[in-house]
Amino acid sequence: MLSVVIMAAGFGTRMKSTTPKVLHTICNKSLLEYVIDAARKVSTDIHLVLFNEHAKIKDYIESKYEGLNFHIQNHEKTPGTGGALMDKNKNFLNVSGKKVLILSGDTPLLDGDELLRLSQSNSDMSIAYFKTSTPFGYGRIKQEQNISIVEEKDATTEERAITLVNAGLYCFKASVLKACVPLLKDDNAQKEFYLTDVIKLAQEKGFKASLFEVKEENLYGVNTKANLAYAQDLMLKSLRKKWMEVGVIMNMPETIYIDSTVSFVGECKLDSFVAIKGSSVIKNSHIKQNTIVLDSTLEDSDVGPSANIRPGCLIKSSHIGNFVECKNAKLSGVKAGHLSYLGDCEIDEGTNIGAGVITCNYDGIRKHKTVIGKNVFVGSDTQLVAPITIADNVLVAAGSTITKDVKAGCLSISRIKQTDIENGFFKFKELKSKTF
Ligand code: UD1
Ligand code: CA
Questions:
Q1: Which pLDDT value is given to residue 162?
Q2: What is 225-412's CATH number, 2.160.10.10, 3.40.50.2300, 3.10.50.30, 3.20.20.100?
Q3: N or C: which end of the chain has fewer CB within 10 A?
Q4: 104 Cα–ligand 2 center, Å
């Protein structure tokens, strides 16, 4: 059996944040969740090593996953990636697998297939590496008689020029870790127990090491906020590619933002500068330029340009035009072409919402609901003061403020009668007579 150990006990100092590093998100999912999801593709025996902010991280992860094993590193006595693998007595952690895959909690772009291939290797230890033109920050791999890894901070100038780097991903036979983890020492620049030293120690004991090439972008490690932004760019590229392969059309894909938590069904079209976020599901719909959709479901509809679809909307067979804001709106067969706020409402088939219509849903204390039936025409610049129900086949005159329920079949009008005062213009301007 294969066990997976995910190291996430570091301080993340370089992140300069009050949020634990591994709980920072890219595309709406924490770094650690991406790593756990990849690990779950290869094993059911997953161990997380925590220390810094361990209660916060554990609570968060336990709200999302079941059946994970947690270990708290004794950071004072055994700091470092090697220390992360030690129990109280400096022995290797109690895991049941004969093979152990070791991952870092800060590499969100891991590829499940790559992990599977690495874990199938028969070597005593396989070390994932890649060649890079920017080796800064990584441990460098030296291939002499034995394979060894020298950390950037301990490296000589010549060693720093090495472009083969340790990806921070390994598959060990458990027997190697049991034999060598207790032998680790902290005699290095950082005064830490380095997991990477296991490799040297194990070869001295006669175990065999092999290198396993991985793609640099899959092992991209997040240490700083600049790294976080770059990791998100990489993630977005891969999400766009995945959804385009499924059949989504994207206009200027590099401008489109998609969370990893959204999904698309059927043939959808996304115009430039669109953002689809949260738990949104988009089915057979066209999302036009500059539109934001958050935690909402759209079906057979076209939305935007510049529409703001906020949480809780279910929009079916509808046309939502520019500068329309919807929140918790259930719309079916509705047209709302321009400049409206539709919040906490249900609107039925064949209904037209004129420009500038507002559902006044908030009285300053509570939110109230607006219900509009079938084939209703709501004239432009109407305010619907909720709670309110407009029945089927109603005509609401433009410019009305509707405060009471309207029965089926009515024309509802609520506005001051127009008065035209002759020559009022000139009187107002204090002019004796027409001068132009
Ligand atoms: C590590 C490797 C380096 C490799 C790089 C790849 C070591 C000594 N160095 O360096 O060779 O190129 O990853 O990204 O292993 N952690 C703990 N406990 C600790 C310290 C760290 O659990 O006491 C965890 C961190 O939370 C993180 C992971 O181990 O998830 C890596 O630690 P980090 O400090 O980022 O190591 P690097 O300096 O990146
Ligand atoms: Ca790192």
A1: 97
A2: 2.160.10.10
A3: C
A4: 7
